[in-house]
Amino acid sequence: MSNFNQERLLQVLRAPQISEKATYVADKNEQVVFIVSSDATKPEVKAAVELLFKVAVKSVQISVLKGKAKRFGRFMGRRNDVKKAFVCLMPGQEINFAEGGGV
Amino acid sequence: MQINQENAVDSTGVDVALNAAVNSLERRIDLSLPLAAIDQDVAQRLKHLARTVKMPGFRPGKVPFKMVTQQYGRDARSEAIGAAIEKSFGEKVREQKLRVVGYPRFEPKTGEGAADPLMLEFCAVFEVYPEVVLGDITGCEIEKPALTVTEAEVDQTLEVLRKQRVTYVAAPRPAASGDRVVIDFFGRRNGELFPGGEGHDFEIILGAGKMLADFEAAVTGLSSGAGKTFDLTFPADYQAPDLAGQTVQFEVTVKSVESSQLPDLDAEFAKSLGVADGDLAKMRDEVRANLEREVKKRLQERIKSQVMDALLAVNPLTVPKAMVDQESRQMAEAALRDMESRGMSVKNVPVEPSWFTEQAKRRTSLGIIVAELVKEKALAAKPEQVRALIDDFAATYEDPAEVVRWYYSQPERLAEAEGLVMENNVVDWVLGNARIKEKQLSFDELMGSGK
Predict the structure, then answer these.
(1) Which of A33, A95, B285, B426 might form a disulfide with A17, Cβ 3.0–4.6 angstroms?
(2) Each residue of B3-56: pLDDT tens digit?
């Protein structure tokens, strides 16, 4: 159903983000939050979620969390950035992480 | 099986049936709980839990209820069931006035009884404390041994003490019985030395019976420096099988003959026994005092064990298995600790609690009987009795006040003393009620038995 390489899609989703905010948006907008690989695009995420969880995705929003700047002694360092995808499901769809699925 | 069944629905809606014993002390109670009540309890527990539970990604108390249920639901449920069982069981036990021993075993009920899907059914199996009906002790006969320490016993003890301090002095005369001789010897069988048949600077005490009698007899009469060759036939039951019954030739050279000398009963001897000024009369007094203490202790032990036997005999009792098990486990542990403290490696020593079952049975039944007796006849230790006992203990120490303080400083030690006093009370009571036969014991009889 999509013209993405399946191997690539399997590498897109890193983990579900389970937090207060994630449950809040899930209740409010039927959205599910994932940590995705930092070079993933919205169409890739959409295809990956549809492939892995067999659900219909309405839209995807993406944000990049900048890694914290950390100092070790005299040296400044930087943690890796993390890409977060808010996947908006079609009305009535649901992903249940507890029963199988997952990345 | 259901002899004494009574079905009653009490206020909590718990349906309970009591079945009669399987063994004389084992009881079985059927309990059933409505599942709805348990579910309610589970929900309540989870709600309470959700207020404090911590999870990554959430502030404490903000975790969605669903997630809490997912993670802790199972625990909460088993807890709720456990609590419900405990509660209904406890209620039933109180209602029936049962004295439960140990922890009950719960078995989920299956089969035709467990048909109701809305009820959780199980039965509790447990043992009850045996009912003690104190038997009649007056018919029992207790032998009360008696022994007074006389001068003869003091002499006897002094004699033993002297023998322990025997010294040997070289004597220029033929060896006689009681002497210590130092010898070299070679034993030959058919002209060949045999293993173990050779010894140098070997000490024998003639007449002590450590060597073969024939060997000793051959050595007796030899003076220092003398030698002798003689034939010896080993007895047929000799410990080394290849020598038993054989005749061998021994060549013996006596290096020295020493006669034994018992120390004189003088001031020196008294000092070695710890009487500082070497006063003989004082030494005798001390020995006598020690003897009397020892004799008193042993007499009391004898009486006590007889009393306990008598108590056991008149109060036949079935002991709950749970108590016996516990006791034997404790005894096994104590035995292990004992071995460890003596420096043995405990790891490879399998100590089975079952070895102690008999002893444990005796102990627990005695414990039950004595406890009952104490309650019935008001034989509990009184503070002034405990005080007297401790003072008595302390008297043998250098600083009695210190010892008394030591006892009173820790409750366990005091409890120990109380236990002793209580035991004495029981013994006294039994002695006061049973038939008593006085019996004069000889010194040797008493001392021999205690070893």
Answers:
(1) A33
(2) 333 333 333 334 444 444 445 667 777 777 777 888 888 888 888 888 888 888
Nearest-angstrom CA–CA distance, A26 and A31: 5
Q: Which domain range does residue B250 map to?
A: 166-261
Mutation for A interface: B53, B58, B65, B74, most A CBs within 10 A:
B58
Per-residue confidence (pLDDT) for residue B344, from 0 to 100: 67
Instruction: Please name the residue that has the structure tokens 């001068």.
Output: B151
pLDDT for B27 equals 72
Residue numbers in B near A17 (CB within 8 A): 57
Residues B183 and B116 reside in one and the same domain = no
Same domain (yes/no): B439, B367: yes
What pTM does this model have? 0.49
Residue of A nearest to B55 (CA): A19
Q: Are B200 and B182 in contact (CB under 8 A)?
A: no
Please indicate, yes or no, whether residues B438 and B315 belong to a single structural domain of this protein.
yes
Cβ of B62 under 8 Å from any chain A Cβ?
A: yes
Choose among B72, B125, B143: nearest CA to B445: B143
Domain annotation covers residue B35: yes
Please give the pLDDT value at position B78. 86
Distance from CA of B77 to the nearest CA of A (A): 19
A&B contacts, CB < 8 Å:
13
Which among B59, B62, B70 has the least Cβ separation from residue A98? B70
Residues A51 and A4: beta-carbon distance below 8 Å: no
**Interface contact A23-B64, CB threshold 8 A:** yes
- B233 and B291 part of one domain: no
Per-residue pLDDT tens over the stretch B158-180: 777 777 777 777 777 777 777 77
B227 bridge partner residues: B253
How near does any CA of chain B get to the CA of A24, in Å? 10
Flag if B64 and A19 touch (Cβ within 8 Å): no
Domain count, chain B: 3
